[in-house]
Write a structure and sequence with these properties.
The chain is an alpha+beta fold. Helix content is about 25%, strand content about 30%.
């Protein structure tokens, strides 16, 4: 019988799957069952502010208003307040444990979400994953927008995220990027965000410290 290639998957006794060349059943000795990773993404079209006759709301990212009409005359078009970062983080948290996404829980078609503070969406996501036995591990997020610059606001944004996730600042990172003038984001017609979240089983950090 030919030997399996290194790294290939072969059946093992008792119906368990083993990974040849690794040793032990897949997942044995790993913390996989106690750790979940979720990715969230969101994009909003930008338009002239409503006060200037457009459809855009104030530019809010991570619970912080980035600019007023005098500095930047565009904002997100959205049913809620259009906080692209909170939306991405909400989806990352929900996705990490296989819960319905933000569009299912808070649909655009529901008038109750008109102008709604996106902090409520993120707060509900955190409540649901905690009820399922998970807690925040860490968050790494990237906001992509041509302007205004995110840098002056990053401290306040991180503070907001730490408060909502219930973690220290060493567990939250927020990066701001431009799109080098390329496509809708680079031309100032859209803003987008990516978020990666790690969740751990409730109490697992305390057990490791012990």
């Amino acid at each position: 019988m030919p030997r399996p290639l290194a790294g290939s998957v072969t059946p093992a006794r008792h119906g368990r799957t083993r990974e040849a060349g690794v040793g032990g059943a897949m997942g044995e000795g790993l913390e996989g069952p106690g750790v979940r990773i979720g990715h969230g993404y969101d994009l909003h079209r930008l338009d002239r502010l409503r006060s200037l006759g457009g459809q855009g709301r104030a530019m809010i990212v991570g619970g912080v208003v980035l600019a007023g009409a005098a500095e930047f005359d565009r904002g997100p078009v959205a049913r809620s307040d259009g906080d692209v970062l909170y939306h991405a983080v909400t989806d990352a948290i929900l996705g990490a444990v296989g819960l319905p996404d933000i569009g299912q829980l808070f649909p655009d078609s529901d008038e109750a979400n008109e102008g709604r503070d996106s902090e409520e969406f993120l707060g509900e996501a955190v409540r649901r994953v905690r009820a399922a036995g998970w807690e925040g591990g860490n968050l790494d997020a990237t906001v992509i927008l041509q302007r205004p610059k995110l840098s002056p606001h990053k401290g306040r944004i991180r503070t907001n995220l730490c408060r909502l996730l219930g973690v220290g600042p060493e567990r939250v990172n927020v990066k701001g990027k431009t799109h080098e003038g390329v496509d809708a984001v680079g031309e100032g017609r859209a803003v987008e965000a990516h978020a990666v979240v790690v969740l751990v089983r409730g109490g697992s950090r305390a057990r490791r410290r012990g």
